Recover the amino acids of this structure.
């Protein structure tokens, strides 16, 4: 995997940096039984009214159904191919299990077609294997972490992200997130060993505005360019500033805490990502 830079033959390629897709399996086939059609809303609700701005257009995509639960315990699966997923930043792997069933999983960094993966208690903590936090060795790099046992992985799923298992105390395990936050998670929750694939995603550059239109993002109007009736930061004579940055509803957008003070997971956070 790597990043390819383009020669500046056009304004759009001058600053463009694109992934080389070296880790993908050549001539792979998308598993048709694991894809679902996605309907584009254009930001409109069922009445046709625009409820979300700056959404519309883009290429048509099919959603790949991902196995976040990894609940085929004790059954070995072989990585058939590493594939591109237009709906997420990381790569996905098509797994063919010994009983013939096929499932997509998030591809860890370094995994290749032909390797074997397995999930369940009492297995080796190797890359791509999923097992409870209570059985993973300390200081191991993990991803796709459950918050509630059996619900499926919800944490650490984007390209290049990873967490580290620091400690275990009773029924809880201490995990350090990529953001720097340290929190407790039930040791019965499952996680997958390894780092999420495609760590070079952060180095990609679109190069031109049209690349945003390809993924369905329309141009965004700056609030200071609006009228006062449209946004709290709008209006003024000439290039007047819009005052303190805030949202369209008037909520301050820099430094204002929006997290619910009584959120259930506050008691599980040992160290916040915003160190005091």
């Amino acid at each position: 995997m790597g990043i390819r830079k383009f020669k500046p033959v056009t304004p759009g390629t001058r600053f463009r940096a694109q992934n080389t897709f070296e880790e993908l399996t050549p001539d792979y086939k998308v598993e048709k039984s694991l894809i679902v059609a996605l309907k584009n809303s254009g930001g409109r609700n069922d009445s046709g009214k625009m409820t979300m701005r700056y959404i519309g257009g883009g290429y048509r995509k099919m959603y790949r159904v991902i196995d976040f639960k990894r609940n085929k315990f004790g059954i070995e699966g072989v990585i058939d191919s590493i594939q591109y997923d237009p709906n997420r930043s990381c790569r996905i792997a098509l797994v063919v299990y010994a009983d013939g069933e096929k499932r997509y999983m998030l591809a860890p960094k370094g995994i290749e077609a032909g390797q074997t993966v397995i999930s369940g208690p009492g297995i080796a903590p190797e890359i791509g294997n999923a097992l409870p936090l209570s059985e993973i060795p300390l200081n191991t790099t993990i991803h796709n972490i459950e918050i509630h046992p059996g619900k499926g992985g919800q944490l650490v799923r984007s390209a290049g992200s990873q967490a580290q298992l620091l400690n275990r105390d009773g029924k809880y395990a201490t995990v350090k997130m990529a953001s720097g936050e340290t929190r407790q998670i039930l040791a019965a929750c499952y996680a997958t060993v390894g780092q999420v694939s495609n760590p070079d995603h952060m180095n990609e550059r679109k190069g031109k505005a049209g690349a945003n239109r390809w993924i369905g993002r329309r141009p965004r109007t700056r609030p200071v360019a609006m009228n006062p009736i449209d946004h709290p930061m709008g209006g003024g004579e000439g290039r007047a500033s819009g005052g303190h940055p805030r949202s369209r509803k008037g909520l301050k957008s820099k430094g204002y805490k929006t997290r619910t003070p009584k959120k259930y997971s506050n008691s599980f956070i040992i160290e916040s990502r915003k160190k005091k």
Summary: The radius of gyration is 22 Å. The chain has two helices and 17 strands.
